[in-house]
Amino acid sequence: MGDFVERTIGDLTVRIDRLRCISSSNCMELAPEVFEYDEEKICAFKQSLGPIERERLIEACDICPVDALLAFDASGKQLVP
Is the pTM of this model over 0.90? Predict the structure, then answer.
């Protein structure tokens, strides 16, 4: 697996920076439909994503204490961090 993992969710593209992740689990607590730990205890996307509200997904990315989660809108504009 690379240093970055990306997935399009609705009209957002979410990127996980695996090197920055400190496994705080804040994102998983706010968006358990989307995030889980992988075998290395690093934030990962669930294989099968559940439905999630756009604003809650953005908030789950924004709550990361080390900015390991980035969210972009459909035009490519970075929304968080």
Answer: yes
